[in-house]
DNA sequence: GTGAGTGTTTCGCT
DNA sequence: TAGCGAAACACTCA
């Protein structure tokens, strides 16, 4: 589930709980989660201190004292939890970081899609595919209208799919893509080069505003997502279209429709969002 | 019990 | 090269 606001919420929680903590030992009950060399992963993390936790798009970057960075992507259902030393592994714990202060940091992932890798700090952009091709963060400064015009108008892709492509804009997922298209009154199957510059300006504003609002609300909880404190976000109460198929549009009352766009469930209003 | 659907990314094919 | 569809896996719901 995690999109940018959820990952940012996790980052803040982890920063509060484990920034400055030193790692004593690393157990990896599900070795497939680590895509770099497993032996080196365990060896290099042992004795390292977590100096800081950064985020880029939906990726978490654990900056370690030994000039290594652990890159972690939660994919669908990855979660971190902090437990006292000795606490039993969860059913889906894939990695257990034992800390010297008698706590342990678990990485749990029921669907086993999440991945982590250890790379030298500074090399992560080069070594981690996906991270190196990431588009700008959806912020006022990074996501300029000039950039939007350039990428949207030179492509002929369907806008919903285009927004989900992290190399265009980092951090949008299925939920917020549906939300911002509804807010901007753009049909999800509109091709990107057909969207006027004026509309792109509105879309840009809505993306920045929506991601920022969702982050303030600690993200959206659809199924199993919870933040590091085991709390759930409450932005789902703010969603206008996602998960509301067959219910009336909150703007015009028309029944919202659900279709597939590029394999992804997509909810929209057939009256407000007309295809051009 | 069975089949469809689920938040993300990568990879291979055209 | 750009774009599309399938695959990775486990669980829930109809």
UniProtKB/TrEMBL annotation:
DNA binds at residues 92, 111. This is Formamidopyrimidine-DNA glycosylase. InterPro entries: DNA_glyclase_Znf_dom_DNA_BS, FPG_cat, FPG_Glyclase, FPG_N, H2TH_FPG, Ribosomal_uS13-like_H2TH, Znf_DNA_glyclase/AP_lyase, Znf_FPG/IleRS. It catalyses: 2'-deoxyribonucleotide-(2'-deoxyribose 5'-phosphate)-2'-deoxyribonucleotide-DNA = a 3'-end 2'-deoxyribonucleotide-(2,3-dehydro-2,3-deoxyribose 5'-phosphate)-DNA + a 5'-end 5'-phospho-2'-deoxyribonucleoside-DNA + H(+); Hydrolysis of DNA containing ring-opened 7-methylguanine residues, releasing 2,6-diamino-4-hydroxy-5-(N-methyl)formamidopyrimidine. It comes from Fructobacillus papyrifericola. It holds the Pfam family H2TH. The keyword Hydrolase applies. One of its GO terms (molecular function) is oxidized purine nucleobase lesion DNA N-glycosylase activity. Residues 240-274 form the FPG-type domain. Binds 1 zinc ion per subunit. The active site is at 2 (schiff-base intermediate with dna), 3 (proton donor), 58 (proton donor), 264 (proton donor). Monomer. Keywords: DNA damage, DNA repair, DNA-binding, Glycosidase, Hydrolase, Lyase, Metal-binding, Multifunctional enzyme, Zinc, Zinc-finger.
């Amino acid at each position: 589930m995690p999109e940018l606001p959820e990952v940012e919420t996790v980052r803040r929680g982890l920063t509060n709980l484990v920034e400055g903590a030193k790692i004593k030992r690393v157990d990896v009950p599900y070795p497939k989660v680590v895509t770099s060399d497993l032996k080196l992963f365990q060896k290099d993390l042992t004795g390292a201190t977590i100096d800081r936790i950064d985020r880029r798009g939906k990726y978490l970057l654990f900056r370690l004292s030994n000039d290594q960075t652990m890159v972690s992507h939660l994919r669908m259902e990855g979660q971190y939890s902090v437990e006292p030393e000795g606490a039993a592994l969860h059913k889906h714990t894939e990695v257990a970081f034992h800390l010297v202060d008698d706590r342990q940091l678990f990485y749990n992932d029921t669907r086993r899609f999440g991945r982590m890798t250890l790379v030298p700090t500074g090399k992560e952009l080069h070594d981690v595919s996906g991270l190196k091709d990431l588009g700008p963060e959806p912020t006022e400064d990074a996501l300029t209208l000039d950039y939007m015009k350039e990428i949207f108008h030179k492509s002929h892709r369907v806008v919903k799919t285009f927004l989900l492509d992290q190399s265009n804009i980092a951090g949008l997922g299925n939920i917020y893509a549906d939300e911002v298209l509804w807010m901007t009154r753009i049909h999800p199957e509109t091709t990107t080069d057909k969207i006027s510059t004026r509309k792109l300006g509105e879309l840009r504003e809505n993306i920045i505003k929506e991601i920022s609002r969702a982050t303030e609300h600690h993200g959206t909880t659809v199924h199993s997502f919870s933040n590091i404190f085991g709390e759930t976000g409450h932005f789902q109460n703010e969603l206008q279209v996602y998960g509301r198929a067959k219910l009336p549009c909150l703007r015009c009352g028309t029944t919202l429709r659900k279709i597939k766009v590029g394999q992804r469930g997509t909810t929209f209003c057939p009256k407000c969002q007309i295809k051009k």
